[in-house]
């Protein structure tokens, strides 16, 4: 298990990218293959948090409460709440609907490309 902790004597906060660069520099290729799923979990969490902020901002820009927003999107108010709080594990179908209705695009690309 890999644990990253900020020193109590340090005022520096590292980004995810800096932490992973340090981890990747410290391990062999075989060890990195073993921790790859952990990096995927971190990436998924980052995506979920960014999506949550964007979805909430779009709802607020439309001046809608969660109930009306849910009706607009065709999903439940509970789903809207979970999306905005980065909770749960929404399906690709749900995210696709939400992004489409909000004139947002969801793309799947190979890492390292745009």
What does it look like?
The chain contains five helices and no strands. With 114 residues, the chain is an all-alpha fold. It has a single domain, classed as Orthogonal Bundle (434 Repressor (Amino-terminal Domain)). α3 (66-73) packs across α4. It is elongated, with a radius of gyration of 18 Å.
DSSP helix fraction: 55-70%
Beta-strand residue percentage: under 5%
| Order of helix and strand elements from N to C terminus | HHHHH
Distance, first to last CA? 32 Å
Supply Rg. 18 Å
> How many DSSP-defined strands?
0
Instruction: Write down the domain tally.
Output: 1
What's the pLDDT, averaged over the residues?
83
At CATH level 2, the architecture is Orthogonal Bundle
Main beta sheet: strand number and arrangement?
Answer: none
Question: What is the H level of CATH, i.e. the homologous superfamily?
Answer: lambda repressor-like DNA-binding domains
CATH class: Mainly Alpha
Total helical segments:
5
Task: Extract low-pLDDT stretches.
Answer: 1-7
- Identify the quaternary structure here: single chain
Topology-level CATH name: 434 Repressor (Amino-terminal Domain)
Q: Could you say which structural class the secondary elements and strand pairing correspond to?
A: mainly alpha
Write a concise synopsis of the structure shown:
The chain is an all-alpha fold and 114 residues long.
């Amino acid at each position: 298990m890999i644990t990253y902790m900020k020193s109590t004597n340090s005022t520096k906060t590292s980004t995810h990218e800096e932490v992973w660069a340090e981890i990747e520099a410290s391990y062999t290729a075989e060890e990195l293959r073993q921790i790859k799923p952990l990096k995927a979990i971190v990436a998924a969490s980052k995506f979920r948090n960014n999506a949550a902020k964007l979805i909430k901002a779009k709802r607020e820009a439309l001046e809608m409460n969660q109930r009306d927003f849910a009706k607009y999107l065709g999903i439940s108010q509970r789903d809207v709440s979970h999306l905005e709080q980065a909770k749960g594990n929404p399906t690709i179908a749900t995210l696709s609907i939400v992004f489409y209705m909000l004139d947002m695009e969801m793309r799947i690309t190979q890492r390292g490309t745009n």
